[in-house]
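anyone else get weird line breaks when pasting these?? whatever heres mine. first is seq + tokens for prot A
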Amino acid sequence: MKADLQCGRTIVNLEVPDSTEVLEMEPLAPLHDPTAAVRDALAHPIQSPPLEEMARGRQSACIVISDITRPVPNQIILPPLLETLEAAAMAREAITILIATGMHRPNLGEELAHMVGRDIMANYRIENHFCRDPENYRRIDTIDGAPIEVNRHYLDAGLRILTGLIEPHFYAGYSGGRKAILPGISSFETMKFMHSYRMIDHPRVANCVLDGNPFHHNGLRICELAGVDFIVNVVLNKHRQVGGVFAGHYDRAHRAGCEVVERHSTAAVDEPFDLVITSGGGFPLDSTFYQVSKALICARNVLRKGGDIVVICGCHEGLGGKEFSGILRSVGSFAEFRERYQDPKNFVIDQWCAQSIFQALDHAGQVHIYSPGLTREDVEKMGAVFVTDLQQTVNRLTARGGRVALSPEGPYVVGMVREAVGAVS
């Protein structure tokens, strides 16, 4: 059987046994006119007054958008949103578009033009969030002794709007909604609390889990503290076409989108696999190995203990940020990672993502990584296998027999063993 998997901006072709079980997204028809769908969602939102009605009399607005690592169709979402605000007599100069960088680098120049379009880039105020710049945020409360600090541009706005993409998320259950604030526009100290070793180790901090998930519930609490007037979230199909628009109340509209994602992005299987072949999701998600952790977690969900994972990822920017790269280059096993980082006093940025990667490496017998953007030294240091000939590696692993799964969309499809499905609904 022939298989195509995304690797950066290219497609990798593979041959796998005919008996391979393919984990795919259920078909989700693209909207005929997504821009019109956004306009309709703004006018007829979920458990909220129409956006134009909410905007009347407000002196300013802040629209939070995702950064370059998320394939959010901002050029579809933003024009109707901006038109609606201006139709409500809000001055263009009073509107700020805030990029929810979380702890990522800022998006500037051609990246920004790619994200929002040149017309919006030239005519609206656009700011990047900087999580370690105290001038960028202020404290609004505390949770369990941790400071809750949120971007000033957002807090000072008369109308606060979140946008984003709803898809499975390995900590929050689903992305979108409250994640635009945390981690999107929160301070480093706030993110330390939400990304601690203890939080990430919680059994309900997992893909497609909302109820009982402390990451999700703390996110909602922070939304209530910071204030959210309106959200506009979308769901994409496997071809990254808009399949749904969900606007209105920050929790109820988000939940409605999550229900669609659950139907179209989860795959129930009868029993774990001996080998899982997966993709990092392609560009822009697999720009760094940091984001490839999502594919490894999805593979781990359906892999028997001691099985093998093959992951294909572009990683044209390498491992990721300085701190994340430093962890992977200094720790060679989950046991070593746990010994060093479970103490909150040793917390470093991006340790949560490294924690997830080492958990997957610990569960698997071996993780085989094919990536044009990574070096053999970096792959082997983290305890994985560096792959040069992908087809030869797949042939060798499948020749052992056993159950094989192929997940062409990688992190966009969450596999669940049937006996566990009820536990993560």
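and prot B, same format (seq, then tokens)
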Amino acid sequence: MPVILTSALLVNISLFASVFQKIGFPILGEVSGGRPISGLALWLTTPNSLSVLFTNPLRVVFYGIFFLACCVLFSWLWVEISGSLNAKEVSKQLYNSGIQIPGFRSSKRQLYMIMKKYIPALTILGGLFVGILAFIADLTGALGGGTGVLLTVGVVYRLYEEIAKEQLMDVNPMLRRFLGDE
């Protein structure tokens, strides 16, 4: 999700640059043929080949830092706003499933204190690593770009999970009755 939100933000910057140029105020840069040619819009346009790395490395570094910072920010915001992956919800789910951490009391508060220590760091690292993967895919000119690669991997993995579940149900009919799929 953070890569999709970051990509949408960057596309909107190019769009606004084009709109501002049409009304006579090119404050985000100039656009020619639908592609930015100067200003902030150019610096925040996805470098889609490795040749840009050699012709204008400062632009690639600026874009990379901005892209990764936005991925980390959107990752953190997504976890905090959605509420499904924050420390409070995760600790409640763990407590309700009966999981206990060895050496600690079994209480919601204790689980929350432990989760509060790890989830923000994992959220930031997750956003950073997914951003790095998408940035490298964009830079190498992968088919569909970094966002396309991440969406494709997600869809293929979900399809794999569905196929594995169906095979498990075919092999074990008792499990099918237990899960209520008959």
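btw re prot B: The chain has eight helices and two strands. The chain has two domains: 2-141, 142-182.
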